[in-house]
UniProtKB/TrEMBL annotation:
Documented activity regulation: The formation of the proteasomal ATPase ARC-20S proteasome complex, likely via the docking of the C-termini of ARC into the intersubunit pockets in the alpha-rings, may trigger opening of the gate for substrate entry. Interconversion between the open-gate and close-gate conformations leads to a dynamic regulation of the 20S proteasome proteolysis activity.
Gene that encodes it: prcB
Residues of the propeptide: 1-51
Gene Ontology terms: cellular component: proteasome complex
Taxonomic path: Bacteria, Bacillati, Actinomycetota, Actinomycetes, Kitasatosporales
Organism domain of life: Bacteria
Active site: T52 (nucleophile)
Organism: Streptomyces bambusae
Name assigned to this protein: Proteasome subunit beta
Length: 279
């Protein structure tokens, strides 16, 4: 029997009809106008705040995902303390680079997508499945991306089946690639990746991995004006998260500030950072 949508206290029929375990499919069927990709595209190129650099690195037992705090609009700093790294669910996280408003909205939709699947199916998606769902969401934003409103996230999590941390990167078309060891996205990614390339080792401890990503963000900020380094005066520090078999954990303000201060103090002695061995 179809639900009475005109009476108060009753759910609309759409909520009582069996369907897909995908929340995006549900919206596409019943409220397609709520999907970001179905909205009317703005005319011309739109200036909007952009998030910049996100980095990630694996270590035995997990993966670290971190981001700087700066958002820019052209050559201006739009926000100094934006948050770019969010938990997707208990065992995964996503860091955003690109148009900040659309990126945050996409993250919220992604969180709902994973929660909806778990409630409908009674089980969680595999990490591979989560990465694929995010790819589909990015692809649906292609129209916006072609007008300069791109969202290019970095996805990381703990794979319970393979018992290790994994990293996935994307392009604006939704193309997905698994990264091994470390990865970076955003305007400062070329400098962050170069930094990690010389410092990364497969046997890093969790503490060393968190130090590595902060070093990489520092190097990115040193060469990329859109990336913000640790701001000791305003007490604004990178967001650093760790995902292991125990789940998602974000470093506390005290932990991230102490880590950032150690890196900054060391840079007073070696402005260009740690030296990698020649051989």
């Amino acid at each position: 029997m179809e639900a009475n949508t005109f009476s108060t206290g009753r759910l609309p029929a759409a909520f009582l009809t069996p369907g897909s375990s995908s929340f995006m499919d549900f919206l596409a069927s019943h409220s397609p106008d709520l999907l970001p990709g179905n909205r009317k595209l703005p005319e011309g190129i739109v200036e909007a705040p952009h998030g910049t650099t996100i980095v990630a690195a694996t270590f035995p037992g997990g993966v670290v995902l971190a981001g700087d705090r700066r958002a820019t609009m052209g050559n201006m700093i739009a926000q100094r303390d934006i948050e770019k790294v969010f938990p997707a669910d208990e065992y995964s996280a996503v860091g955003i680079a690109g148009t900040a408003g659309l990126a945050v909205e996409m993250v919220k939709l992604f969180q709902l997508e994973l929660e909806h699947f778990e409630k409908v199916e009674g089980a969680t998606l595999s990490l591979e499945g989560k990465a694929n769902r995010l790819s589909t969401m990015i692809r649906s934003n292609l129209g916006m991306a072609m007008q300069g409103l791109a969202v290019v996230p970095l996805f990381a999590g703990w794979d319970e089946g393979k018992e290790k941390g994994r990293i996935f990167s994307y392009d604006v078309t939704g193309g997905r690639s698994e990264e091994h060891g470390y990865a970076a996205t955003g305007s400062g990614s070329i400098f962050a990746r170069g930094s990690m390339k010389k410092l990364y080792r497969e046997d890093l401890s969790e503490e060393q991995a968190t130090t590595l990503v902060v070093q990489a963000l520092y190097d990115a900020a040193d060469d990329d004006s859109a990336t913000g380094g640790p701001d000791l005066a305003r007490r604004i520090f990178p967001i650093v998260t760790v995902i292991t078999d125990e789940g998602f954990r974000r470093l506390t303000e005290e932990e991230s500030s102490e880590l950032a201060r150690k890196v900054t103090d060391r840079r007073l002695e070696q402005p260009d950072g740690p030296r990698a061995a020649l051989l």
